[in-house]
Amino acid sequence: MTDEDSAFDVLGVLSDPVRRRLYRYVAAAPKEVGRDAAAEAARVSRSLAAFHLDKLVEAGLLAVSFRRLSGRTGPGAGRPAKLYRRAEGEHAVSVPPRSYEAAGRLLAEVLENAGLDRELQAAARAAGAAQPDARADDVVAALRARGYEPFWDGGTLRLRNCPFHALAAEFPALICGMNLALVEGLAPEQWSPAMDPCPGGCCVALSKNKND
């Protein structure tokens, strides 16, 4: 089986609408999710949610851990709950095959070697501001539409996913600077994006200005 065949099989698991709802809920959650919460979010029974969640685990789309939610230990503490989180791997299919990641890597290498960080950031900031919904009041929706998976952490809006993860891992200074500039261009004026990495997520976080 080729890598393309494997990717088709993995993404084919999401053809079921219940599995898509469950995957989206778990993937967007800032913490691990139990079966009861997932079932409620997908509006299905606990047993059906458990079945589909485990199918997503088998496909490599979700990962599991076990923990007692009560925090108690020892005899009488009950069985540990099975918890789900998004798996670390990435899955993509292009028909016909394309290699945008390879082109992105080459361009990033050239920009970094040429010291064009500021020029890239200026272009990214302008691109963010030029988006149709740029400066929209609902910055959460705008970020969600771009795959950032925003969530609230107290008064801070954190981003669960980095849309540029592969390039950011290889060219962190270049790509994270570009990402911050892009979000600055996209966010309304009452928001202040800043470098504040989320564990396992994006390097950028947003907070509202104190006078707003």
TrEMBL record:
<protein>
    <submittedName>
        <fullName>Helix-turn-helix domain-containing protein</fullName>
    </submittedName>
</protein>
<dbReference type="InterPro" id="IPR036390">
    <property type="entry name" value="WH_DNA-bd_sf"/>
</dbReference>
<dbReference type="Pfam" id="PF12840">
    <property type="entry name" value="HTH_20"/>
</dbReference>
<dbReference type="InterPro" id="IPR036388">
    <property type="entry name" value="WH-like_DNA-bd_sf"/>
</dbReference>
<dbReference type="InterPro" id="IPR011991">
    <property type="entry name" value="ArsR-like_HTH"/>
</dbReference>
